[in-house]
Amino acid sequence: MKRVLGASVPLGAALLAFVLGSLMILALGENPIAGGSAIIEGAFGSGDRLAVTAVRATPLLLVGIGITIAFRASVINIGGEGQIIAGALLSTIVALAIPDTPKIILLPLVMVAGMVGGGIWGAIPGALKAYAAVNEILSTVMLNIVAVQLMNYLLRGPMIDPIEVDGSRIPQTERLTDNAAMPTLVDGTRLHLGVVIAVLAAVVVYIILWRTPMGFRLRAVGHNPDAARAAGISVERNITMAMAMSGALSGLAGVMLVFGSESLRLVTDGSAAGFTGSAGFNGIVAALFGGLHPLWTIPSSFLFGALLTGATQLQRALQIPAALAVALNGLVVLFVVSSDRVGGWLEGRLNQGAYDSETAELRESAADDLEPEADLVSADDTAAPQDTVS
Amino acid sequence: MSEFFTLSVLIATFASAVRLAVPYLLAALGETIGQRSGVLNLGVDGVMLLSAFGAYYAVIETGSHLLGIGVGLLIGVFMGVVYAVVTVNLHAKQGISGIGIFLFGLGFSDLLSQELVGAIQPIRKLPSLADLPLVGGVFEPLEDIKYLGELLFSHNLMTYIAFALVPAVTWMLNSTTFGLNIKAVGENPQAADSLGVSVERTRFAAIMIGNALAGLAGATLSLQLGVFQQNLTNGLGFIAVALVYFGAWRAKWVMAGAMLYGLVTATRLQWQARDIIPNSASDLAAMTPALITILALVLLAKRVRGPAALTKPFSRH
Amino acid sequence: MKTTRARRWLALLTTFLALSMVAAACGSSSDTDSDSAAATAVSDCGTDNSVEMGESVTDLSVAVVAPSDSEDRAFTQSMIDSLTRLGIDPQVTDGTFQVDVAADAIRGYAEDGIEVVVVHGTQYGGSLAEIAPDFPETSFVWGTSTSTNDIANVFAYYPEAQEGGYVNGWIAGAIADGGSIGVVGPVEAGDAVAYINGFSAGAEANGAGNVAVTYTGSFSNVALATEAAEAFLTTGVDVLTGTSQSTVGAVNVAAENEIPWFGTQSNQEAWSSDQVVASQVYHWEVILDDMFEMIEGGTLGGEALALTLENGGLVVEFNGCYDLDGDIVDGAADIIDEIIAGDITPPA
Prior knowledge:
The structure holds 3 protein chains of 3 kinds. By secondary structure, chain A is an all-alpha fold.
């Protein structure tokens, strides 16, 4: 009963957001019912649409589970966009360098390369936070900017498709060879192996976080850094490690965006979102909709991917500007994340009696234990808090 | 290179830096107040976009910059109420709710722009002091002073307001009851609560002020540029949030951060214009404000603790 | 620059006379069409420049997928305007800057049975290579690109932006008269580079002292474009030009400081009726018309078509409100002729 309630409140919130969205659609002179069905049809309407939804969800899932790791160590990682780009760049460089390698070697190799690229791009802000007291929101925002410019430089310069140099000068790489393409799982659809890899990664992350000493240390650092330090756990190393792992998973998302794409190229339009589709931000949303739990992030990223895919159909079917879909996204996020407390309140009301309310409180504090107390701590209290170094 | 290091060019570069910095400064000051009370707002960019459009639209329809700024302010206040309810009353996770506001602001401002305005048209920019109606004559001779005129007296009204807000915010936080309440509520809400300070009301007010300033920032941006386009801010709001950490929650260091960012940007554009930086390195040049900000913080950072209760919702247990 | 109405009318009349004289001269001295006349136009001062729906040239169903807003007064708008001139009201999916989203839209239109899908974004080409073979009955019209990648049902289109750029630059050089010119560019890629290279060459060929180019690093950051233009002012430029969606910032700076401005992609007079001298306007309809004919005749692709001064796809539209010296106008017309004849090849 409680689980149903737990799931229905966010769904109710999402519906409320859709109501507002319908009002916007009405204001544009279109039929919101048609809009709603366009979204559903676009996301789930056929086998092929399901495949597109799954493929769309894959980078969200990967970024999301990376975010989960970082949050558990109480670091907030909004550098996903840059880490995706870094992973995509490094993996594409590798693929361009050794184009004739057989697929079975090349794909794992580029995935590793992507994780290394993203991992570095995540480790830098992690280390800066741990060792130099540079807040991670600042460093990730700045590194996102650096990553875009790096991509622009490489794609219009050293990495540009040789054909383009005297041609249209499109800032893109040449088409990678077919052995670089992610294998398709179901013929005739665009469902590729990356989806499976992402789900497996979610399981692996779950295992790491709750079944390994490293995961325990990460969570300890996130829960109470002073106690962790007293217990001999290196807070600095673990924060850096968490950010590196988070970055690595975003980097892997970047690999999926290139090697799972139809074009098999890395192309830029000068912005981050043009390549990533804002997966770096949407992944955060998916992670939080999944309660910061890697396994729950699987369905939540699928649902969020459905929303994004359906929105394209909405745009096409009703000639509604893409901007409305973006705004609707934002509303869904806002409403769902606001509904947390409403859910708890509803539960309390439905359970009369001291015993039941006690159980509810126990459950709440257990949930608190699962989540770090300092969710998004950006204060520099992981460094020696009382020191002021002049 | 030598032409750059002439006084007039240096002053012009500084003036350009100021123009660039003002929206960052306004938004960052607002975020500082909010964060001091324990609330992180990642949705600043969305609020700025909405108020930027609102101000722009007001000027298109009425021609009044004053009204434009007012509309921007009101939009900021409204979004402040929304965010305050979501954060203080509904205890939503702050980073993510901010992203929701950002996405909403990004999409809705774009939608409104397409539906209400259509093909973008330029508007008259915010006038400098000397061009103000009625009172402008007073400032004209000031603006004409060699060098100092351009440096100090040639900016628009919002610029002066923004810089005046720096000591005002500092004073408010350090010397008024309200400001001390804000800090208390950000450091130790339980203790503040037991002393009779209403955590909810204080945070509510701080969030509204913060978002109001973000609204001013957005209005200033579109009215300074004289146009609105989708995603006009290009991430400005996020950089403003980053600058709060750069400034260690102190208004004057936040200002230093905004000026640093503006100065590096203005300088690299100057150097690119004079071919001191060749076009082959244009991407590298575009990276420099971000890199230098990180570098500056690494070199200069004092290990200052932030508000201890930042991002933690308050419940009286 | 304040001109009385009488002076304006005189200037307009002179311009028209000059152009028609040039056109007549060209027409009588060679046996080709007076193409240079097709490659220029003069707007009426004070008119709105909005594009009227023309007579429909085809019954084919058309859809457009484009990265930026349809009314951006730049890249995307130029395509929408062109289709409007051909009497076509296409289905549009705009704002799809993410490639995979655009790919989805392209595929969707093809699945819906749209006969001509205009893929108005260079970055979509890779995806198109995968989609087009799945829909052999659909014609895909893709730009900007110089190559169809050998796909049978893909037409490619691109502007020889350096041609109009050269003309703009030549006129700018005349106005600058030994002074310097500032160019505000976005990212050094695509047709931005072609325009800028052509412009620089034209300006330098006609006596400009120094043509300085700044690439801001962003296609959309208006604040950067504004300050880049301001930076040029401190170097003492006499003329400004720029390209991309963010260019409105630079135009505003030119307008405030009474610096002549040259535009590209779309007619930019709406930005400043006083300071815009001329714009290189992309008239895609010239080649779209040809493509529609071919498609109706059964050829669904396989060719790359260019907008040039010669075919009227590139039109240098003079601003009727700007008082341009008659000699310069004549000279520009000569330059256009030379480009068309192949005597001048502007660098891309």
